[in-house]
Amino acid sequence: MKTFTEVKPYANEPFTNFALEENKKAMQAAIAKVKSELGRHYPLTIGGEKIETEAKITSINPGNVDEVIGYVSKADQKLAEQAMQAALTTFETWKKVPARERAEYLFKAAHLMRERKHEFSATMILESGKNYVEADVDTAEAIDFLEFYGREMIRLSNTNETQPLTKIPGEDNKITYIPLGVGVVIPPWNFPLAICVGMTTAAVVSGNTVLLKPASTTPVIAHKFFALMEEVGLPAGVINFIPGSGAEVGDYLTTHPKTRFISFTGSKEVGLRINKLAADTVPGQIWIKRVIAEMGGKDGIVVDETADLEAAAAAIVASAFGFQGQKCSAGSRAVIVESVYDQVAERVVELTKKLKWGLQEHDFAAGPVIDKTSYDRILDYIEVGKQEGTLLVGGDKAEGNGYYIQPTVFGDVGGKARIMQEEIFGPVLALAKAKDWQEAIAMYNDTEFGLTGSYFSTDEDRIAEALETVHCGNLYINRKCTGALVGVHPFGGFNMSGTDSKAGGYDYLLLFTQAKLTSRKI
C-alpha cells in the first residue's frame, strides 16, 4: 500500500531573518560547504543515463570571475534527439501515474529542499550573484512552487467531485485534465532555482515528461534541483537534463514534430523567436504546439501628489535595484507628478547612494550583473541615458573582480526615451515627470510591455481608476512592483511581456493539460 504525505492547507514558505546572527552563520557555513565543491563536473542525464561530453559549459562566479562554480556537460542535437526519445518512451507510463502519486514527488522534494535551504541559496549566491535575502527568497519560492503545484494537481484530479458538471437524466458526464506530452522547458538565469523548479514541476506533476535546458550561466543550481528530483525517486526519463546552446539544442527541440509544448522565460526577442518557430508545423506533427512564454517587461511605479512619498521612494529603489535590476518585474522607471517630483527624486538619490556593492558571499546590498554580455549592454544603455536625461547618481563601472556596475539613476527623462521604453535588465532607473496623475498613468501605459506596475496614492477615486486603467498583468497599490508570492500574486503579463501565464496561480496547470470530456449513457 502506497503511503502519502498528509496534505495540509497551502502556506508560503517563511523567509529567513538574517538580522539574527545564527541565521547569518548558517548561511556562511552553507557558502563554505558549496565553495568546497567548486570546480566539479556535472553530467547531462537522459533517461537516467549519465553522459559526460567533451564540450562543457563553464559556470563562473559573476562577482569573482576567477572562480569556477562548475563544468557542465553540453548537449548537441544528437543528444537532444536521444533525450526526446527517452521522454517519449517515459511519457507512456508517466501519464498513467495517478495525480496524487505524481504530487507526492513534489512534496518530498519540498521537504528535502526545506532541510537544505541554505545550501541551495548559497549555490545561487556564488553562481548568480544574489545576496542572502534575494537567494533565500528564490529558494523559498521554489519550495512554494513544489507545494502549490502538488496541491493544484490533486485539486484538478478531483474536479468531478468538487465541481461536478450539470447532471442530465441518463448520462454520466466527467471532465478529466490529461497531460499534453513531451515539453521543452527553458528557464532563465535570474531566478535560476525558483522559476526552473516552477516551470519544470508544473509540467511534470501534470503528467508530462520534460526536456530541461537550463540557462547557460546558471546550470549548476539547475543540476542541484534535478539531482534532488532523482533523490526523491522520480522515474528516470520524466525529467531529462540537457544543458546546451539555444541556437543548436533549443531551436532543434522547438521545431521537433514530437514537441508538444515549450515553456520559456526570458527575453522578448528569444520568446518571439520561439513562438514563431513553434507556430510552423512540420511533417509528423499532429498538434498545434503550445507556447507558454514570460518575456520580461519595462515595469514602473506611478506616484501622485497625495502619496506617502517616503514609502514611494523606498519602493522605487527596492524595485529598481533588487538583484541589480535583473528581474522581469524590476521597476526600471518611475513616473512622478511634477508637484512632488523633486522631493521624490531627491529621496530616491539619497537611498540609492546608501547601496554598497561587493562580493555577494559577504552579503552586500548590490552585487554583479550576470555576465560580460549583460555588463557591456548595460554600460551602453548608461551612455544612452546620459544623452536622454540628467545623471543623478552612479553612471559608471564599479570596483571588483567581476561584473559590477554602480546603481544608476537618471532624472528628467522623456516618456519616449530609450531608457524609458527598452528593457535594460540592470541597475538603471529612469525618472520622468508628469503634469498630473492621469498623464502619469498614460505615460506608464505607453510601452509595448505590461508585466508589473505600482501606483502610489491615498486618493480612493484615483486608485479605483488606476485599478481599471493601468495595463499590466500584476498591479500593486502602495507597494513595490517586485516580490510576487506563489498562491498570493499569480504572475504573468500582457502584450510583449508574454502569454500572461499566471505562474503560481490556479490557472497555471491548465496550460500543461488538456480537458477531456467523457459522456456515458446509463
UniProtKB/TrEMBL annotation:
Pathway: Amino-acid degradation; L-proline degradation into L-glutamate; L-glutamate from L-proline: step 2/2. InterPro entries: Ald_DH/histidinol_DH, Ald_DH_C, Ald_DH_CS_CYS, Ald_DH_N, Aldehyde_DH_dom, Proline_metab_enzyme, RocA. PROSITE patterns: ALDEHYDE_DEHYDR_CYS (PS00070). Residues 55-516 form the Aldehyde dehydrogenase domain. It is an enzyme of class 1 (oxidoreductase). It catalyses: L-glutamate 5-semialdehyde + NAD(+) + H2O = L-glutamate + NADH + 2 H(+). SUPFAM superfamilies: ALDH-like. GO terms for molecular function: L-glutamate gamma-semialdehyde dehydrogenase activity. Keywords: NAD, Oxidoreductase. Its EC number is 1.2.1.88. Pfam families: Aldedh. This is L-glutamate gamma-semialdehyde dehydrogenase. It comes from Paenibacillus lignilyticus. The gene is pruA.
